[in-house]
Design brief:
Elements (H helix, E strand, L loop, with lengths): L6 E7 L4 H10 L6 E8 L5 H8 L4 E3 L8 H14 L4 E4 L8 H6 L4 E5 L11 H8 L3 E8 L9 E8 L6 H24 L3 E4 L2 E4 L16
Parallel strand pairs: 1-2, 1-4, 2-3, 4-5
Antiparallel strand pairs: 5-6, 6-7, 8-9
The structure holds 5-O-phosphono-beta-D-ribofuranosylamine.
5-O-phosphono-beta-D-ribofuranosylamine binds next to helix 1, strand 5 and helix 6.
Length: 220
């Protein structure tokens, strides 16, 4: 494409990689402002890593277990990202906590997806906790990464209904479909430079929010 310089994106995974796959699919679009330049896994057996290799993508395995400490692991991660001239990092089921120093290097350039409507249900087992709490609306959040876990300015959210007879797995599946919509949307907004952080909140430049349905409760 002439005229458009796409941002170079690395996706960091530890497992299944379904959000990775959703981002890859979106980035196939001719007008998408980002290209997926690298997939990094910290787990050799991550299913998503096999998917990425099969798709012929550039991949890197940076196994935290191979390093003496968190800092050494992150130095290796940083150097891999620099080698591939990465502009934006997307965490997608990446199950390592990152130090404030690493996070600081990627300030406003690192995104995460969390399977709940933040700031509710930070941490693990979000679907079971949402079900047990009896919330009627649940969902997913894409946010910029700050040192504090599952915090940071919210870029996009999507909601789903919680049904009385839902199991955690049923709720997870419903919310995952929303994840696969909002992550490509959020990355697009960031890559286009349309997200400004003001007083800890993301303001989206340009027209109205691109898809109102993503911020309204779904009726399913
Ligand atoms: C997703 O639910 C994501 O929100 C959470 O971890 C899960 C990763 O799934 N952070 P996948 O590897 O993208 O399929």
């Amino acid at each position: 494409m002439s005229g458009m310089v796409r941002k170079r994106v690395a996706i960091l995974i530890s497992g299944r990689g379904s959000n990775m796959a959703a981002l890859l699919a979106a980035a196939q679009g001719p007008a998408y402002p980002a290209e997926i330049s690298l997939i990094v896994s910290n787990q050799a057996d991550a299913k998503g890593l096999a998917t990425a290799r099969a798709a012929g993508l550039a991949t890197a395995l940076v196994e935290h277990r191979q390093f003496a400490d968190r800092e050494a692991f992150e130095r290796a991660l940083q150097s891999t990202l620099e080698t591939h001239r990465i502009d934006i990092v997307c965490l997608a089921g990446f199950m390592r906590l990152l130090t404030p120093s690493f996070v600081g290097r990627w300030q406003e350039r690192m995104l995460n997806i969390h399977p709940a409507l933040l700031p509710a249900f930070k941490g693990l087992d979000t679907h079971e906790r949402a079900r047990a709490a009896g919330v009627k609306i649940h969902g997913a959040t894409v946010h910029f990464v700050i040192p504090e876990m599952d915090s940071g300015p919210i870029i996009a959210q999507g909601a789903v209904s919680v049904h009385d007879d839902d199991t955690a797995d049923m709720l997870a599946a419903r919310a995952l479909a929303v994840e696969h919509k909002i992550y490509p949307l959020a990355l697009r907004l960031v890559a286009e430079g349309r997200v400004r952080i003001v007083d800890g909140r993301c303001l989206i430049d340009g027209a109205a929010f691109p898809d109102r349905s993503l911020i309204a409760p779904s009726t399913d």
